[in-house]
Amino acid sequence: MKRPETSKTTEPGVAVAIKYDRSNNRRLNAGFLGRGTIEVAHESIRLTGKQSRPFWFGLKTGIELKLNRMANVDRVGKRIRFVIEGASKDEQPRQFSFRVATEAQAQQIESVLPKKRTRDFVLEKAFRAKLLAATPKYYVVPAIVGLNLLVFILACATGDGIFGGKPGTLTRWGANLGTLSLNGQWWRLVTSSFLHIGALHLLMNMAALCLCGVLVERLYGNAAFALLYLAAGLSGSLASAFCHPDVPSVGASDAVFGVYGALLAYLLRQKGTVPPTTLKQLQNLCIIFVGYNLFYGVTEAGIDTAAHVGGLIGGFLFGLITAQSLDARIKSAHAEYRLPAGVHLVKSACPSR
């Protein structure tokens, strides 16, 4: 009887080419950068590559990692991630993440690595799976970033400065000015959230949005997130218009603060549905972002703290009202999907009241 051939990828002594994932975390991949190799043995694996060290660039070296200390092996396509637990409780686990040339290679490597999973890892993986099931695709955050960038380019083309906005130009484009916004030109309460005073202002706001916006969009759903962003921007603009009606105000920070406020509301409403490790990370992110920006707004001139607070409160209240567990959203989506075709036709033909 002919036996199947053993894949060369998983044979001891065979080195497979890999590419280490890049990260700002210097502990990731033990400092390995760029391309390297992985060699799987019976009781360990050996990783090689160029390792960054102080005053040395691209020092080629290798390390051996014991399989009995490996846990949380996770493969997504060609990418493999795992952690090496510390030898003692005081030693922090080391994380590794890299890609191989083909998905078949990744599957073969995964098959010979330990199957040990920690409780936090299992909960985190289940949470991520629910996020994808509840909101398979995110497109509102990229659309918002693209719209802000387009408006900025058009404003610059009509005379606004790249490194500093001109008050006259920004007012013509729809800056929030209380004396105008509260006296007929209500649209300024919305348009002001898509205008920025220079490229740095735009970059900082969009970076803060991307930092947690995708997660919040998946937590609430695409349509709800779009409404949340607009509602937070509107509440921030109203607060700004009432607190200093004679000062023009622009920027997406009120809406971005609302996104963080909605995230805080979700964490309060759905405590049991968010894994402990994720919950801690998100709480720290919210506290650092909100705390730093509010402190900076109080201590520095020219910062519209009223808009920040208004957006934060608006987003938080929106989140308290609309936050649903991922299980509830998935169940609702499946129930909608199972409706007979005739029901969908009746629903589309009858306008809601």
Describe the structure.
The protein is elongated and about 75 Å long. Strand 5 (70-76) and strand 6 (79-84) form a beta hairpin. The protein has two domains: 8-117, Pleckstrin-homology domain (PH domain)/Phosphotyrosine-binding domain (PTB) (PH-domain like, Roll); 140-337, Up-down Bundle (Rhomboid-like fold). Strands 4-3-2-1-7-6-5 form a seven-stranded antiparallel β-sheet, with helices on one face. The protein has helices spanning 103-112, 119-134, 140-157, 167-173, 178-181, 188-191, 199-220, 222-243, 253-269, 276-299, 305-322, 326-337, 341-349, and strands at residues 15-20, 32-40, 44-53, 56-66, 70-76, 79-84, 94-100. By secondary structure, it is of the alpha+beta class. The protein is 52% helix and 16% strand. The chain is built from 13 helices and seven strands. The relative contact order is 0.09. Residues 1-7 and 341-353 have low confidence and may be disordered.
